[in-house]
Amino acid sequence: SMEYGHHARPDSKRPLDEGSPAAAGLTSKKANEALTRNRELTTVLVKNLPKSYNQNKVYKYFKHCGPIIHVDVADSLKKNFRFARIEFARYDGALAAITKTHKVVGQNEIIVSHLTECTLWMTNFPPSYTQRNIRDLLQDINVVALSIRLPSLRFNTSRRFAYIDVTSKEDARYCVEKLNGLKIEGYTLVTKVSNPLEKSKRTDSATLEGREIMIRNLSTELLDENLLRESFEGFGSIEKINIPAGQKEHSFNNCCAFMVFENKDSAERALQMNRSLLGNREISVSLADKKP
């Protein structure tokens, strides 16, 4: 459900760097199975392609490496060469492509590397923003956007975020420095470097999956992780409990806590606690809001 834009990125001359799955002891077969989860393992950046290389030419040049899901091309800032971002269906496709580094294409010696640490996660841009606006935003600070992926709004118009691939980790960090917190039309832009290799999922994934509950009307005495765990663990495995800071100090009368279960069914069963007594309080229990 992602739409694609453009982008790419380069790295070391060695085919594998320390952060690579092979270095991490991942066999090619294992990595191929993990690939659907880890775009970083299957995506390469090609630098220094001739200016005449469009998506079609890039596809033809690399297709024998393995099945290709998507190709993006983007001009370098001075428009003297092109970048390509190639997403393969499998890890071994990406590895085969990396062996082409230093090959001469036209008059140009190309560099091919894994596209890592080059992905930005951006949110809270104005609702009217399109890929074009995001690309211009980066161009204004002299950064090439290789690919801009926005979630399909067919399913959920409130999820306003984008994944953007740039062409180096330096550029990614520079974007965060320049764009995180930038005010545009009354919206404060959020820009972070995304690391798809970190197994931790997006922080709001539990909420979006309906595994998180919100417990309200707690007294400060009931704001106790152990007590809450004991009261709710009968419904299923609890992944984590989050007690927003500052409530005890302000001795709020109506405190709240969030609880994430390992699965959705447990969270739904826990809703039975709504309007039940905990200590001497009638608590309110609901699924956490799916905020954009």
Could you describe the 3D structure shown?
By secondary structure, the protein is an alpha+beta fold. It has 3 domains: 2-114, 2-Layer Sandwich (Alpha-Beta Plaits), CATH 3.30.70.330; 119-194, 2-Layer Sandwich (Alpha-Beta Plaits), CATH 3.30.70; 205-287, Alpha-Beta Plaits, CATH 3.30.70. It is 23% helix and 29% strand. The chain has a 5-stranded antiparallel β-sheet, with helices on one face. A 4-stranded antiparallel β-sheet has the order 3-4-2-7. The longest helix is centred in the middle third of the chain and has 11 residues, at 169-179. The radius of gyration is 23 Å and the shape is elongated. Residues 1-25 have low confidence and may be disordered.
Main beta-sheet annotation = 5 strands, antiparallel
Task: Examine the secondary-structure arrangement and name the CATH architecture of the largest domain.
Answer: 2-Layer Sandwich
Shape: elongated
- Structural class category: alpha+beta
Query: How far apart are the first and last residues' alpha carbons, in Å?
Result: 17 Å
| CATH homolog superfamily of the largest domain | RRM (RNA recognition motif) domain
Poorly predicted regions are: 1-25
Query: Which whole number gives the mean pLDDT?
Result: 83
Number of domains: 3
Count of individual beta strands: 19
Looking at the structure, the CATH topology of the largest domain is Alpha-Beta Plaits
Question: Class of the largest domain in CATH?
Answer: Alpha Beta
Radius of gyration: 23 Å
* Strand content range: 25-35%
Query: If strands are numbered along the chain, what order do they take across the biggest sheet?
Result: 1-9-10-8-13
